[in-house]
Amino acid sequence: MDPDKSGAAAGILMRTLSGLRSEASRPIIHQKIETAELIWNNKLSDVSERLGTTQITSTSPSPGLPLALSPSWEVLQETTARLLFMAVRWVRCLAPFQTLSKRDQLLLLQESWKELFLLHLAQWSIPWDLSPLFNSEKARERLPKDDKVVNNEIKAIQEILARFRQLSPDGSECGCIKAVILFTPETPGLVDAQPVEMLQDQAQCILGDYVRGRYSRQPTRFGRLLLMLPSLRSIRQCTVEQLFFKETIGDIPIQRLLGDMYTMEKSYN
């Protein structure tokens, strides 16, 4: 990517994320992040409406919620497939991402899909208690037995979901967190890492400004949001594939499918 294109990409992100600082002006990047989140939330509502009451079982109430519910394993499998497609669509709706080269777009998506999926799962699962499913026999039979690494990863996923439920990030926070994850300049093979680094830095800075302005009485909120990122990255892609997608895609690595999924999303936009 030449310097002019790099500057254009950074400029788009600056204008978009700067919208979080001023609700009155609402420049482009804030609108684009909100558009992506709005599309995602509309799709989320459609998915949630598919959960019939016969597919839901009651469990013990969770703190802050009148009743915690647990969907069936079949519902979870169907939903996770939809959430993956929705994560790809969220990426497609993010205008600054489209300023990067096509190769870099695919590399960044392949590198970050697992974290984006888990964040979307966390957003969807706020009203649910998934612990019974993670501890069920159906979950165990999909994963290596007596594997300490896998067991720790399952615990980490549950901790991420619990922390997300506790913090309940709003749409602007979720959009910025996803942008920080998506724009990872350390991704191997990038044609031009500089604009990616600029986009990530600015997403993180705007998130900090937004949180400090919107949640001034929660001085640790920004740090707690960022602390989710190492936990998300500590979980291996193969564990997520085996746990959530074994029945829908079999043993095919999701990284191999993302190119087709991304192209499919282009045809719908």
Automatic annotation (TrEMBL):
Alphabetical keyword list: Receptor, Transcription, Transcription regulation
Residue ranges of domain NR LBD in the record: 43-265
Coiled coil location: none
InterPro entries: NHR-like_dom_sf (IPR035500), Nucl_hrmn_rcpt_lig-bd (IPR000536), Nuclear_hormone_rcpt_NR2 (IPR050274), Nuclear_hrmn_rcpt (IPR001723)
Keyword Transcription: yes
The protein's name: NR LBD domain-containing protein
